[in-house]
Every structure is written in structure tokens, then in C-alpha cells.
Design brief:
Number of domains: 3
Helix content: 25-40%
Radius of gyration: 22 Å
Length: 461
């Protein structure tokens, strides 16, 4: 079935088969993350919708025409990964008042339950989830096992060593190619992301700090040379008969001295065609390996760095990632997260992997999107939506009549600047404008600290 010939039947029919005539529960994450999906499932025939966020309301528009029961980790749980783990744990152990509300909403226990993409809960409030992350899939997010997976898939990578935290500095001295090394902790206490358990080591002082910090987070670390270049990701989608591979996404990874700061993602950056195709070929190999090794289905990400020697992968995340969420926002009413949940659950789409790939790549290349966001930033006063202008390398709030370059929202220690597609050039990295945004934002919030800088695009002509 082609996309052009049958419009959107390829996803509507399989998803409608799950939700039509049923109540739907959308669980986990922030309430704002479900806002766009509520009207979609209603149009597909859902009789009623209950949103159960486990990370609070979030920034941005809230779900309309749906019941919302908000819960979130207690305020004493701080830090991105601790709060994320706590919010995911809530899916398996919801507060009594929330469970009571769910029972009132769905007394027959017949609702279709969709969870946030990171959920590992097979059952939520006594109801089976449509899809969840299998333990053998989650295990592959451990940064100390990825190299073995890449080797099995035949994907080129940088040299590395997996050692105890205490032996990491010895490995650093052996692997340092002049710019230091990057240490990534294992998943002893659960997987991690957003550079929360990753350290850039360049000398004795940074090595001592990394050893002390990572010893609290894991037993072993992967040590590899620091790779100069744009951090980037490519998604693949494993379907029953093949792997659909998308275009590269820039992972906006900024630097404060030698601290790595994850700050969102976007699709404006274009690597050279050779690097792009190297990334896509690598993702195809990884997707097939995931199918072979753990019977994987659905979306995954292959992350790495676009270096002078080509793409060098650094991690595999067997799940729907933030970059795919950026792409999904450009697809009009296609609820890609829910559609891929149907795939994970064993359902089939009315489209081949090759046709899905061709459509997604064309859409993502034509319509660029994304921006910069961070968790744990100061928010003196909430911002529901405010326009900002990027002019000659610096930002300011838009005055009356000025054309905005970004729309800013901020709430609960989270802030985001969504770049305006018509004002953001396709081709160059968005890193410089992201760094400039945060330096301006932090200055306005009276945040003291070294300025953030962007990675160098070593592939640019």
C-alpha cells in the first residue's frame, strides 16, 4: 500500500482497530505532551479520553476535552534522571486518588492504555498497556554494552575500553588522541541519558572529578576518545518485514568548559551526503541486529558524532527518541508514537518499511523542526508563550512588529525555544543559536556561570 495512493489509511485503520468504540487512557510524561493526541484518538472513534501525567502539567498548551489526573514525583526528588525514574515508577504504583479516578473513568477495565515512550510498565492500574519496553530492550541502553552490539552489526566505531571506574584513568591515558576522553557509566542504577552520567576528561583534575562522580552512579565505565564534531542521531523503525531508516537529527549538545550539556534536538542541520548515508546504512544494520538479537519492534535511535573521519556511533537507544518526536510534530495529524505502539504490540501497518521510509525521509527533509530545551534551568516566572528574536548572534524578546525566530515556553525548571522553520536556515548547525539563547536566558535569570559554547561542525566545507 503506498502512502500517496491510500492517503493515511495505512495508520488510521490499524490504530482505529485499537481505540474505536473504547475509552482511552494516555499515561505518563507531562500533560502537555498528550495535548495534540487527544483530538486524534477522538476522531478515530475513542469514546472518552483520560490523561494521567506522572511528571506534572508541563509547559505549553494543556489537553482539551479530556479528563486530566495529574501526579508527579515529590519535590524532594531532584535531578533529571532521578525524577524521570520516579515518574516512570509511578506508572506501576499510581497514587490512590488517581487509581480511584481511573476506576471511575473505566469501571469495566476495557480502556486502551497508551503509555509514555519510556514506559516499562506492562500493566497500569490493573490494565494492560498497549506497548511497553521489554527488559531485554532496555538492557541495551547500557553504555558499556553498545560496542559489542555495533561489532555484531558490522558498524565502524571509535576505539574504546570498558573498565572499572577505578581503572578509567589508565584507559584514558591510552585512548586520548589529544582532546581527552569521554567516560560513560554503566546502567547499574538504571539507564541514563542527556549526558547525566557522561564526563569529558582532559587532565588529572577532570579525571579525579569524573572518578568520584561516576563511582556513585556505576561500577564500570566505557572510555573512548573525545570526538570533535556535531552530535547526531538517526532513527530506525523495525517493522515485521524490514527496517525504515530516517534522516539525521542534530543533538544539540553544548559545552560549559568541559561539561557536556544536552540542550534539545533539531532537523535543520545537514551533514554531507556521504556522512548522511553512512549514518543511515549503520542504522539499517543496527535495526536488523536488534531484530535478530532481541526480537525488537518499533523505533530505535543510533547516536554518535559526525567527525572528520565520518560518523562514529556512541550509543543505541532501543526506543522512540526525542529526535523522532521532533519529526513527528511535522507530520500533521499522524500520531506516530501511538502508531508505533501498535507495531510494538504486534500489529501490522498498511505500508511496507520501504514506503514508510521514503515518506518519512521526504517529509523530514522538506519540513524542518526542533529547537533547544533544557531541564533544571531557573524559571523565575512561568512563560506560556513568548516570541524571541535572533539578531546578529544574540537574542532579545520580540517587540511589537518584529518577526520572531523562536517561541519560548518555561515552567517548573524547564524551558524551551522552538525555532521558527521559516526563520531558521536549513544546512548549518543550530548549536550557535542555541548557545546564544541559553547565555541570554541565563543572564536574564541572573544565573552565574561560564558561558555555553557550541560544538564545531568539522564536516562543514
Amino acid at each position: 500500500m503506498s502512502v500517496e495512493g491510500d492517503a493515511d489509511r495505512w495508520w488510521r485503520e490499524p490504530l482505529a482497530a485499537v481505540v474505536a468504540g473504547r475509552k482511552v487512557i494516555l499515561a505518563g510524561g507531562v500533560a502537555a505532551g498528550w495535548t495534540a493526541l487527544v483530538p486524534v484518538v477522538r476522531r478515530l472513534g475513542a469514546t472518552d479520553v483520560l490523561v494521567v501525567p506522572t511528571e506534572g502539567t508541563g509547559a505549553g498548551p494543556q489537553p482539551e476535552d479530556a479528563t486530566v489526573m495529574v501526579c508527579e514525583p515529590p519535590p524532594e526528588v531532584v535531578g533529571m534522571m532521578p525524577r524521570l525514574r520516579a515518574s516512570l515508577a509511578l506508572l506501576g504504583d499510581l497514587p490512590t486518588d488517581v487509581v480511584t479516578a481511573i476506576e471511575s473513568f473505566d469501571p469495566d477495565r476495557a480502556a486502551a492504555v497508551f503509555a509514555v515512550f519510556l514506559s516499562e510498565a506492562a500493566v497500569i492500574a490493573g490494565r494492560p498497556a498497549i506497548a511497553y519496553r521489554r527488559p531485554e530492550w532496555v538492557a541495551l541502553e547500557d553504555k558499556t554494552v553498545v560496542d559489542a552490539l555495533l561489532d555484531r552489526a558490522g558498524v565502524a566505531r571509535a576505539p574504546s575500553a570498558v573498565v572499572t571506574v577505578g581503572d578509567a584513568f589508565t584507559a584514558h591515558r591510552r585512548l586520548d588522541q589529544g582532546a581527552g576522553t569521554v567516560w560513560a557509566a554503566d546502567a547499574r542504577d538504571g539507564y541514563h541519558g542527556g549526558a547525566t552520567a557522561t564526563r569529558w576528561v582532559v587532565d588529572d583534575a577532570t579525571a579525579a572529578a569524573a572518578t568520584a562522580e561516576l563511582a556513585l552512579l556505576g561500577d564500570r565505565v566505557r572510555v573512548m576518545p573525545f570526538l570533535e564534531g556535531i552530535a547526531t542521531s538517526v532513527h530506525g523503525i523495525v517493522l515485521p518485514e524490514g527496517v525504515a531508516v530516517l534522516r539525521p537529527v542534530e543533538l544539540v549538545t553544548l559545552r560549559r568548559g568541559h561539561e557536556l550539556v544536552y540542550a534539545g534536538c533539531a532537523t535543520y542541520w545537514d551533514p554531507p551526503n556521504a556522512v548522511r548515508e553512512e549514518m543511515r546504512a549503520a542504522a539499517r544494520h543496527v535495526g536488523e541486529q536488534l531484530r535478530h538479537d532481541v526480537d525488537f519492534r518499533g523505533a530505535f535511535t543510533l547516536d554518535g558524532v559526525a567527525t572528520t573521519e565520518g560518523f562514529r556511533p556512541t550509543e543505541v537507544n532501543p526506543r522512540f527518541g526525542a529526535g523522532l518526536n521532533v519529526v513527528a510534530r511535522t507530520l500533521a495529524d499522524v500520531p506516530l508514537l501511538l502508531v508505533l505502539d501498535v507495531v510494538v504490540a504486534g500489529g501490522k501497518l498498511g505500508i511496507t518499511a520501504a514506503d514508510l521510509e521514503a515518506w518519512l525521509v521526504a517529509e523530514a527533509d522538506t519540513t524542518r523542526a526542533g529547537g533547544t530545551w533544557r531541564i533544571g534551568v531557573p524559571v523565575t516566572a512561568p512563560i506560556d508563550s513568548r516570541s524571541a528574536v535572533y539578531d546578529n548572534g544574540s537574542w532579545h524578546w520580540a517587540a511589537d512588529g518584529e518577526v520572531p525566530d523562536a517561541t519560548v515556553v518555561a515552567r517548573d525548571k524547564f524551558a524551551r525555544a522552538a525555532f521558527e522553520p521559516v526563520r531558521t536556515p536549513a544546512g548549518p548547525s543550530v548549536g550557535p543559536r542555541a548557545a546564544a539563547f541559553w547565555n541570554w536566558y541565563e543572564s536574564a535569570e541572573d544565573h552565574s556561570g561560564a558561558p555555553l559554547t557550541a560544538a564545531l561542525d568539522v564536516t562543514a566545507p
